[in-house]
Every structure is written in structure tokens, then in C-alpha cells.
Amino acid sequence: GAVVSQHPSRVICKSGTSVKIECRSLDFQATTMFWYRQFPKQSLMLMATSNEGSKATYEQGVEKDKFLINHASLTLSTLTVTSAHPEDSSFYICSARGRRGSPLHFGNGTRLTVT
Amino acid sequence: GQQLNQSPQSMFIQEGEDVSMNCTSSSIFNTWLWYKQDPGEGPVLLIALYKAGELTSNGRLTAQFGITRKDSFLNISASIPSDVGIYFCAGQPSNNAGNMLTFGGGTRLMVKP
């Protein structure tokens, strides 16, 4: 069964509004979670690394003020897309690992459409 | 981030045929992972490899961690229609302390019944 739960699976919002995406580890404590973005027919692009209890580390070119990440507990990380624009429409996927060295498991992704 | 070189980009095969895909890198990797992604869903882990030369099977799937630590392959034997999807390799470079993954560009597999 799924070990990482992501919610919602789909969301449609109007331009200028904010959207929150949740990522939960179900059977383990996730000290680190990763947020990816995937464009159609392309591979996954790492956006940021979320560490429990500390600030997220963003990849080059990713706006930290636009993509707010909060990893407040060992089982939950959230990604908030603020003031969304149509170009933010994409497939966002989170992943989590428990203990060091264990493989990453992915959530089912969130399809964001900004109108 | 940097992508691995994954090939082929796509394959269209007949049901029952075997499939082979591979990933190469100019850097040394400590870990190789193979994922499958169905449309509209997140990637699902198929096989994880942790040692150079390691050969691991998962049902009809077999993957190997190259001895040079710069490549890996995934084989699927006797393909069936539900094997359709995108397969991604992913690796953790040896100089990466944060366990971030580098992904291949994906191999899109199509199976004709």
C-alpha cells in the first residue's frame, strides 16, 4: 500500500489565489521530504528539500516566496503555491524518506490547474 | 538538477517481448533506483540497488548496478499490457550527503497486445 499520501490529487484555482498541497508519510517518520515538479512528458525536477524543524532548501531558480514549504512535523510537509498564475499549472509530486539510506517513496502527485 | 542519460526515450513493443533500458552517468553513484510512473500518478519504486555489480530481480523485472558505478540497466521479461508506463532511473551521487536523487529523462514503454 501507499507509504506517502499526497492531497489533493487535483485542484483548480483562479489566478491570484493560493493553493496548499499536503504530503504525509504514513508508516514512518520522514526527516526529509522532497518536492518535485513535472511538466508533460518530462522528468521530475527537484524544487526543494524540506527538513523537519528547519527551513527548506530551494533549488536554483525556484522562488522561495512563491513556493512556501512547511515541514512542521515528522509526518507532514506542505507546499503552498502563493498568488498562483497559469504558468504554475503543473504536476507536483512529493517524496519522503525515513531513515538515512532508505529509498525515496513518492506521493501520487497533485495536478494543479490555474485558470 | 543534472539528469542521467536514459535510453531509449521510448519503446513500442509486442506483448511477450523482452525490454531493456539503461542509464549512464559521468559521475559515480552510490545508489541506483528504478521507478515506474503511470499517467497522472506519482512514481512507484520498482527496484533499489546499493552495491556495484548488484543484480536484483522483482518478478519479471531485473536490474543491475554497473561495476563502474556509472550505469544501470533494467530488463523486463515477457512484457504484458500493464507494463505500459514511463520508467525512470534515479541515482544518488557519491558526493551527495543529502540523499537527493538525480533522475533520468524516462523511457516511455508502449506494449501492443
Question: Any key phrases for this structure?
Answer:
heterodimer; A: 115 residues; mainly beta; seven-stranded mixed β-sheet; four-stranded antiparallel β-sheet; 11 strands; 52% strand; globular; B: 113 residues; six-stranded mixed β-sheet; five-stranded antiparallel β-sheet; 54% strand
Question: Briefly, what is this?
Answer:
The complex is a heterodimer of chains A (115) and B (113). Chain A is an all-beta fold and 115 residues long. Chain A has strands spanning 4-7, 10-13, 19-25, 32-38, 44-51, 57-58, 67-73, 76-81, 90-97, 105-106, 110-114.
Give the CA-based shape of chain A: globular
Overall residue-averaged pLDDT value of chain B? 91
Please mark out the parts of chain B with pLDDT under 50 across 5 or more consecutive residues, or reply none.
none
Number of helices of chain B: 0
The Cα radius of gyration of chain A reads 13 Å
Q: Give the rounded overall mean pLDDT of chain A.
A: 91
What share of residues are in beta strands of chain A?
Answer: over 45%
Strand content of chain B: over 45%
**Amino- and carboxy-terminal Cα gap of chain A:** 34 Å
Order of helices and strands of chain A: EEEEEEEEEEE
Describe this structure in words.
The complex is a heterodimer of chains A (115) and B (113). Chain A has strands at residues 4-7, 10-13, 19-25, 32-38, 44-51, 57-58, 67-73, 76-81, 90-97, 105-106, 110-114. By secondary structure, chain A is mainly beta. In chain A, strands 2, 4, 5, 6, 9, 10 and 11 form a 7-stranded mixed β-sheet that branches. A 4-stranded antiparallel β-sheet of chain A has the order 1-3-8-7, with no helix packed on it. In chain A, a hairpin with a 5-residue loop joins strand 5 and strand 6 (57-58). Chain B is an all-beta fold and 113 residues long. Helix content of chain B is 0%, strand content 54%. Chain B is built from no helices and 11 strands. Chain B has strands at 5-7, 10-14, 19-24, 29-37, 44-49, 55-58, 61-65, 71-76, 85-93, 102-103, 107-112. In chain B, strands 2, 4, 5, 9, 10 and 11 form a 6-stranded mixed β-sheet that branches. Chain B has a 5-stranded antiparallel β-sheet with strand order 1-3-8-7-6, with no helix packed on it. In chain B, strand 6 and strand 7 form a beta hairpin. The termini of chain B are far apart. The interface between A and B is medium-sized, with 27 and 24 residues.
